[in-house]
Amino acid sequence: MDPVNEMHAAVITYFAAEKKESLLFLMTGGAAIAASLWFWITGSPLRGMGWPLVAVALIQLVVGWTVYSRTDRQARDLHTLLAKDPTSCVRAEVPRMETVQKNFRIYKAIEIVLLAAGLAGMFFLRDRQALYAASLGLALQAGLMLVFDLVAERRADVYVEQIRRLGWRCRVVGASSPRDNI
Amino acid sequence: MPKAIAVLRILVGIVAGYALLGLLITLVFENGLGGVSYAESSAGVLLLAGFCGFASAVTGSMAAALISGGRRWITATVMSLLVMAETTWLVTSGRADGPVWFDALGALSLIAGIQLGAFLYGRFRPRPEPAPAL
Fold this sequence. Notes:
The structure holds 2 protein chains of 2 kinds.
Chain A: H1 3-41, H2 50-84, H3 86-124, H4 129-173
Helix pairs in contact in A: 1-2, 1-4, 2-3, 2-4, 3-4
Chain B: H1 2-32, H2 43-67, H3 72-92, H4 100-124
Helix pairs in contact in B: 1-2, 1-3, 2-3, 2-4, 3-4
């Protein structure tokens, strides 16, 4: 396949998956808020779970909505740039994705700390109902976020690798710009 | 309420165990082995990656069993189903870079590791002291 077309395909695959994951974030956040409300309304002893569930759910909703609403535009801009000047597209996309990868490492560290804190609370605060419930909620949300981000990080790694490889091929076959072919 | 707590602990165990499994595999494959790919890695690296994946699955499964309060077969079953679902998705969506048998073998080794982890947890979990004989 022509390297530029392969890059178009890589962009479509990556951003479609990003959009799906942002929907997953929105659904998880919604479910967490619904569960917290249910705990509060029923006066459940597990209502302490509500605090970490809602706190992380708000982040999930904001991140999910931001990614969902900007993905189509981002993909469209990339396709346009790719059609005009593939080399510039690679030059712009690789540093952007490197920042994304760096941020994933930070998120991962935070999630691991929160998961460890939640698990520690589950084992050491068994006698304090509200704190035990809060620890359960924290461990659940931090664990879910960690799984989501591990999947997203892997996807970003594959995408960056593809973009780099295809960018190199573009230069090799001399398709850096449609004007070069005139 | 103890039932709700038990269900939540199982849920947390599964999520945390699966996250640990993924985290260990990412750490070993990306940082330890510098990236693993069927097409590009040597046979030795692939073998080592297979063993490390298996060991990660054992560790993740034991952690899940511990967090869930010893309900090891429930966590092991759900984690195995998750591995099956993830592998099926990777293969059918064309995201896997190797042949189907390679990914199936990888998934089977993870499932075997998860089951072994549950078994080992049962063997080595701390048990209460037996009451002294009168």
